[in-house]
């Protein structure tokens, strides 16, 4: 964990480090057995819309009095293990890319489980969530609600990107890094559409075009995931 603590120190501003220390202290006081800094901050890839993201193994601490956008996901040790077994990519993201700052055993056990069982997140989960949300994006575009449509499309393209990368046996990194990963994986149109919704404010016609790009990815996502093993879960060589 020393390396992760050093990385978290480098990736955060003094104000962010103070918030992280407060959230972790509160989580440990409530009996947490694991705590990690996750999301774009953990990889020093923040954007203007980034939250401070944390994964707690234990009870979710109150963060309502803290400055900034703080997002805490809390799970029990048993649920954390089951999410790994079920192919949940967020649980694996914590272990592969997050900064583990406190752990009595569940996160270490999770790493061992991934290695010994060759666990890999389920790309099908991403596909299953796209169809329902697509209807909502289309409705928002037809209503002319540019802001809400932009936000929803950005989330959908991010989900599609992660599904495609998982399908290609590439572990998705922070959202800001996804376009470059997609380009290396041969998905240029989705990469360009995602980069646009992350870094710009597209008008409604551009959002409609982005939705079409999303439609074009669905067939690729429907292909069955090839079966094979996986390397050490902390490996970053596919960046």
Top CATH class of the largest domain: Alpha Beta
Oligomerization state of this entry? single chain
Mean pLDDT: 88
Order of helices and strands: HHEHEEHHEHHHHHH
In CATH terms, the superfamily of the largest domain is: Beta Polymerase, domain 2
- CATH-defined topology of the largest domain: Beta Polymerase, domain 2
How much beta, percentage-wise? 5-15%
Shape: globular
Q: How much helical structure, as a percent, in the residues?
A: 55-70%
Q: How large is the radius of gyration?
A: 18 Å
Q: Runs with pLDDT <50, length 5+? A: 225-239
Distance between the termini: 21 Å
The total tally of domains equals 2
Could you characterize the architecture of this molecule?
- The structure is a single chain.
- The protein is α+β, with helices and mostly antiparallel strands.
- The chain folds into two domains: 2-117, Beta Polymerase, domain 2 (2-Layer Sandwich), CATH 3.30.460; 123-222, Four Helix Bundle (Hemerythrin (Met), subunit A) (Up-down Bundle), CATH 1.20.120.
- It has eleven helices and four strands.
- It has helices at residues 2-11, 14-29, 39-42, 77-85, 89-97, 106-117, 123-143, 146-167, 178-184, 188-199, 204-222, and strands at residues 34-38, 52-57, 70-75, 99-103.
- Strands 3-2-1-4 form a four-stranded mixed sheet, sandwiched between helices.
- It is globular and about 50 Å long.
- It starts with a helix and ends in a 17-residue tail after the last helix.
């Amino acid at each position: 964990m020393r390396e992760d603590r050093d990385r978290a120190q480098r990736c955060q501003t003094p104000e962010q480090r103070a918030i992280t220390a407060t959230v972790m202290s509160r989580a440990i006081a409530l009996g947490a057995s694991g705590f990690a800094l996750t999301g774009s901050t953990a990889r020093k890839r923040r954007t203007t819309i980034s939250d401070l993201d944390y994964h707690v193994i234990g009870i979710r601490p109150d963060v309502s009095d803290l400055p900034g956008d703080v997002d805490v996901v809390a799970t029990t040790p048993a649920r954390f293990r089951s999410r790994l077994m079920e192919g949940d990519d967020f649980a694996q993201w914590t272990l592969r890319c997050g900064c583990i700052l406190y752990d009595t055993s569940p996160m270490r056990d999770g790493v061992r489980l991934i290695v010994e069982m060759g666990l890999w997140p389920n790309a099908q989960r991403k596909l299953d969530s796209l169809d329902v949300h697509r209807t909502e994006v289309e409705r928002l575009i037809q209503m002319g609600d540019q802001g809400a449509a932009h936000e929803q499309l950005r989330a959908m393209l991010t989900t599609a990107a992660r599904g495609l990368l998982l399908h290609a046996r590439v572990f998705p990194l922070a959202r800001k890094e996804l376009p470059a990963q997609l380009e290396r994986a041969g998905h240029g149109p989705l990469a360009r559409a995602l980069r646009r919704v992350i870094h710009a404010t597209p008008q409604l016609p551009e959002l409609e075009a982005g939705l079409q790009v999303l439609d074009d990815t669905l067939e690729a996502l429907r292909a069955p995931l090839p079966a094979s093993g996986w390397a050490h879960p902390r490996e970053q060589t596919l960046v």
